[in-house]
User: Fold these one by one.
Assistant:
Number 1:
Amino acid sequence: MFFMEKEPVSKNFIERIIEQDLAEGKDVKIITRFPPEPNGYLHVGHAKSILLNYGLAQKYNGLFNLRFDDTNPVKEDIEFVNSIVADVEWLGAKYNEEVKFASNYFQDMYEAAVRLIKKGKAYVCELTPDEIREYRGTLTEPGKESPYRNRSIEENLALFEGMKNGDFPDGSKVLRAKIDMASSNINMRDPILYRVARIHHHNTGDDWCIYPMYDFAHPIEDAVEGITHSICTLEFEDHRPLYDWVVIECGYKNTPDEFPKQIEFAKLYLKNVVTGKRYIKKLVQDGVVDGWDDPRLVTIAALRRRGFTPDSLKKFMDLVGVAKADSSVDYAMLEYCIRDDLKPKAPRVMAVIDPIKLVIDNYPENEIEWLPATTNVENPDLGTHMVPFGKELWIEREDFMEVPVKKYFRLFPGNEVRLMNAYFVKCVGCEKDENGNVTVVHATYDSETKSGSGFTGRKVKGTIHWVNAANAIEATARLYENLVDEEKGVYDKETGLMNLNPNSLQVTKAYVEPFIKEFKPGDSFQFVRNGYFCIDTKDTTEENLVFNRIVSLKSSFKLN
Ligand code: ATP
Ligand code: MG
């Protein structure tokens, strides 16, 4: 298949693990979770994680938790919390109970840390951050033990309590796990568990002046919620021994094989598409795009605004599969999925996005005929609607050529075409401005050839769409190209800057048939011959409809 970059190593390796766990009778109810950090908007990669975790919970009759990993208050914001909840709900992932926050377990984490200290498994360290880094060693050299490592349990308990009570300045002391400074896994070389930092937290306010580190907090969050399968991305593979160490030493399980257990899968990457949170943030801050939901981005909010549907994203994730090795997928595959989803669902309307006037010389002035049009020929359930026809129409500029090229079957002097849902018209000439640009095309119609009349007298090779000028709804259409220059790749190798495509947004005036007035922002259509479009939910006003092109009709794969 054209869109399959690499066959996934195994589509269902996580399912196999779960099935084995269930077969061994470990636990009947599986619980998965999606643990976003509220420091940005979610993107298509996160959608994969959400649909994977939710899909597994559904498939095995388990539960799915939505839990904010809000343990680093510096970068976090309530705006992001709200947008993430909206995105998860839009995707149709139903979370168990209410939305959860890691910060609600700060007390559990604190108590777990105290248990570690009491077991002699954690200590308060006063090395500076630079010293800690230096003592940590490298991949080839073992680390060195901190001089504070062998403090008594009593001293550690008193100091840690002092840290919590605000007795020490920010950054002056940390709590570290006492594991093994010579471990071949650097993550196990006495990692930091807690730091002193006076930062206001969006959920807990100023209750805490110590905050847990991710590697300590995350496993405890999972354990407290009874998560069985903690599914994360590959970069955490090396952290798994620490994950298990924390869960075991804090007394939540006895062996690595018990729940919660961490399973890693490969991130979803799209070729030539900006997915990194950091880079999307930069595009937003630099004003290159109009916010986190600019339809050229692949945040979930942007995909929704552009007109992608939850079903199209689910289909996409199913096609991508779940792999254990990183790979990247063509954006064209996502386009394939939305076309496939909208094809039977979206009403088809006539809209002209690069208009030129067509005058039918022999049609009566001021007369308007309403002609029936099938709303979607592939879906009779959508019925028919009426389209007005008159003397002056809008047609696409490219549907007329004064001097036709080879195999051009549309309008040119002397040629006859069918106007979709209406009559045959024969081109009789055109008008031009002083620069030689065509301004009006002229034709005559044959009243015998009305669509649906059963006329069989002669055939034409071309059919074009049109909109009656007198009833046309004037609108704005936005046509998109990749935000990134595909020839050059996403990032410039030397400067590290993004290679932007200056033509990523093209705004045009469009004329749409009046049927469009029956719809609302967020609805999607096929503009016949022009692609799938969605009424923009943000910029559409009473006076002006704004359409975003979701995708063109043809595959972006060029055969020639
Ligand atoms: P960062 O942590 O750098 O802010 P992140 O993309 O990891 O960025 P998180 O909020 O931590 O953001 O991610 C939430 C979950 O989504 C994590 O479990 C993470 O593994 C998963 N995830 C993130 N990016 C992808 C991706 N490209 N494909 C699949 N899952 C992803
Ligand atoms: Mg992360």
Note: The radius of gyration is 31 Å.
Number 2:
Amino acid sequence: MRLVLLGAPGVGKGTQAELVSSQFKIPKISTGDLLREAVRQKTTLGIQAKDYMDRGELVADEVVIGLVQEKLSLPEAAKGFVLDGFPRTVTQADILGRWLESEHIALDHVLYVVIPSEHIVDRLSGRRSCPACQSVFHITSCPPKLEGICDRCGAELIQRNDDRRETVESRMLVYTNQTAPLIEYYKEKNILTELDGFGAVDSVHARLVNVLTQV
Ligand code: AMP
């Protein structure tokens, strides 16, 4: 299964990608996670990417394409993968398409995850993330058992710099201008399905699995 999760920041792509990854035993390739890891490790790439990420802007296409190709070429991605946060521009989508074609493979689904726009700011500003295992919580809708501590690995939860209210607006603008055109792009290729991402994580996941197993 080769899958892309597309949608605005905060619609729950990362959470659903994680569930798909463990249910279907395919790697989740999240460019946001890969970039945050590079920032933590202070690699050259991470140092270059940090300011863009903190401002809510996109990191250069060449940088993310390199990261994704490296992961897609690993043996564990041979049977499938779920891409989260990539592609985010038409250039990225074109390059991904060409790469897949050269490997004689194709995407099976692009799921366009949608929630009512008025909930997006709340989802992002209330989000708390685990810097160690990437688990995601929300201060009201999905709080950790112990405040500020990751249920899964015990690390201290943080608020991502780009989840602060002041940055969320620019991320939404970037999404509208640079990423939303991918909706038409994949519609034209007849592989886009809209997925209602509103509601409990389990209900959304059930709807998602329904789409994946229907075709
Ligand atoms: P995310 O965790 O997917 O919300 O990504 C966090 C940030 O990482 C984004 O706001 C961008 O700065 C950067 N980023 C993640 N994926 C991409 C991508 N495919 N292209 C460019 N920048 C990206």
Note: The mean pLDDT is 94.
